Amino acid sequence: MKTSIVTLSGGQDSSTTLAQAIKDSQVVGAIFYHYGQRHEVEAQAAAFFAKHYCIPLEVVNVTAFQELGNSGLVGDGQITGMHPTLKHLPASFVPGRNLVFLTLAAAYAMRMGATQVWTGVCQTDFSGYPDCRRNTMDALEHSVRLGMDFPEFEIITPLMFETKAETFARAEHLGMLELMLEHSHTCYEGDRTLRHAWGYGCGQCPACALRAKGYEEYLSSKHR
Ligand code: ZN
User: How many structural domains comprise the chain?
Assistant: First the structure.
């Protein structure tokens, strides 16, 4: 069994990925990034899952993205609509974010004696972020192997080709669906007051809409 660390954002995908990594590898740590998110609830959710699975959580500050701006997710930009520069992408895209995050995760993995970084990125029905695609992961894996003299390094992406509905089914299969629904956080508005069947959130923002739609599809696929 290989040794791994997991990137943890506190959301549905990363918490499900953590549960999968616990099953399939020897997880020695998780890493959470403060990059100027609007809400603390994501950090709290990440801390919950790390504690639940009894693994250390490394919290790193990557505030440069806040200084650079150019995304609705950091600063006070608009969260809905299109990205200010990359008009084909949503406003929530943070240019360069995953590239930096995964490089930091690789550095953390090396320190922890792990050869794998598990991450919940998904290219199937996410918002079309180019840094969530498997070809970006392949290129990054190659860069780290060369640039960190780390030939055994791997980026593991169990959700890469799954729909949100399939990720709900995976969480059920892993026996953590209820835990994930209750404790993971997806909503861009940081809403923890409204509880839906699919979890907490404002129910209006793009992240809530995606999660709600995925849950509906998951339920209807069960009854087919
Ligand atoms: Zn929301």
Answer: 1
